[in-house]
Design goal:
669 residues; alpha+beta; Dna Ligase, domain 1; Glycoprotein, Type 4 Pilin; 8-stranded antiparallel barrel; globular
Length: 669
Amino acid sequence: MSHGQRINKLSKILIANRGEIACRVMKTARKMNIKTVAVFSDADRHSLHVKMADEAHYIGPSPASESYLRQDKLMDIIKKTGAQAVHPGYGFLSEQAPFAEALAAQGVEFIGPPASAIAEMGSKSASKRIMIDAGVSCVPGYHGDNQDEAYLKEQADQVGYPIIIKAVSGGGGKGMRMVFDDKDFMAALRSAKEESIKAFNDDRVILERFFDFQPRHVEVQVMADSHGNAVYFSNRDCSVQRRYQKIIEEAPAPGLTPEEHREIGEMAVRAAKAVGYKSAGTVEFIMDTVERKFYFMEMNTRLQVEHPITELVTGVDLVELQLRVSQGEALPFTQEDINVNGHAFEARVYAEDPDNNFMPGSGDVNYLSTPAESETVRIDTSIRQGDAVSVFYDPMIAKLVVWAPDRLSSLALLHSKLQEYHVVGLSTNIKFLKDLATHPNFESADVHTDFIKEHGDTLFPSPPSLSEENLALTAVSYLLSRTTASSLSPWTKSMFSRLNLNHVEELKLKDGDTDLDIKIRCAGSSYFVSVNSGSEVEVDVAISAEDNVIYGSGNSANKKLECKIVQDGDNLHVFCDGSETVLSRNVPKYLVADDEAGLDDGVASVEGLVQKIFAGIGDVVKAGDIILQVNVMKMLFDISAHKDGVISSICFNEGDRVSKGQLLYELEE
């Protein structure tokens, strides 16, 4: 595209963020010959965004409140480095009007909208009033300033249930609670306010009617300049969510008529112009799928996590456009010049456990293998093999983004590339994303915000077991790798060779709770494998290995076989036919530490920070009573008593860091 006259007044920018969005901004800045300054906390000292930047500066301890959210420290680094502008990324300070005002006071450009627009659209109550005045349809609810609990209860009763309580300054599902019955309102309100204070330092809320007719979440990417021009770049469907947070997005939103695409786009532009907007922003709508109506929910006054799918279908680098607009350039095109080509999906790869209510996780990435990037496959990430997903920040590992000429082709490509995405060391949602991508209702674009809840019985199938042939290939590959690496004796180098004997090697593994007693004998160039005294499977095997990874290939009954085995502690992660199976080596009970046995209850299932303790030693509790609360990536999880009893010990204090598997409390009869 033509960019018109270049002003080129930016030569150095500071990126007030971390992780993949910092890396993403650096790529475009480098392309535009703009130098970048990174900031980093203790947890991020060796992160990729630090390595990519032209210079990097320490900003403080790992908690964001002591580092990335410290405006005073950022201002000092800006002065020290001579950065002319700040790109806030998303999250952290990206939607904090005081930060934009502080930069303006120092003559530093904020690569985003004016502070006034951030303030107006950052308040869910104020933004609704502005949108109504601008002729944009809004969800019925209460958006006023009176935060008295009794008054809010009265307003909720008037709006009607079900209702959603939303933090005024919220986002990402934080500070949000759904209430289906008036008797549950007060408890949900207090919980939402407490979470909102922790995440946003603001406990104000609004109330909105919850649409229970399978609504869709459709959003519009807008861009505006300082010359009064504003355009929209198609739209995105983000309906499939968990914990009110997006997990997969696509562009454009499927199933809309040309008139509906235009209607929602023009509403988004009206919303942006109503607040004198500049830079990139996203206007989010809830779609009534029965009446085919769109209702304004909120405007995110920043670049969105899912912006890459818009870039792939429009061919526009949104970060480059942000940087040019921040330098005073006018948009280089009109609405009529923007074309949408093909279809794109973004799958967010998270460190989380979908089988445990998508509980976020953390830990080391011991092994990582990703699909190759190309013109149709893009991976936005900052995580490398050996890095850690920290408890202090969002648990997203990467964004896998694909493009194809049509929706079904794009979805097939997404599934294919998810099969090539291998992570070992912590739980991820990759299997869930693969199951989602092949779900018949998702394939037919029958999506809505309750999709996961409605299809929960089919979205979480048990992991497939290895076929007989693949298990035979895996067993022989693993055994060969052990003997090839050994030089203890000639017997191990030729383990299957015994004078006048057809020697059998034994291997004991577990597949979940199933014991696998595997026997392997060799005859000529073939191996014959039986499991639990079953029939033998003949397989030819060749292997190669590097570090803790074994690559096996072979043939069985004229069928070509391939597997990859990643060794991680006592586990073997086997990748075959696009699926992952975890086999464990049998460890004798006497080798298991005593402190790992028998702690089924009162144990932390995730890593986090103790937010609040509700009970003390000597208190009598009943099963289900809340004992303490753990903060996991700014989400609050209640830890309840697993049985009736008397608390004999609380193992942590408020503010302490808890690791997965640690004992939290003890009960006596």
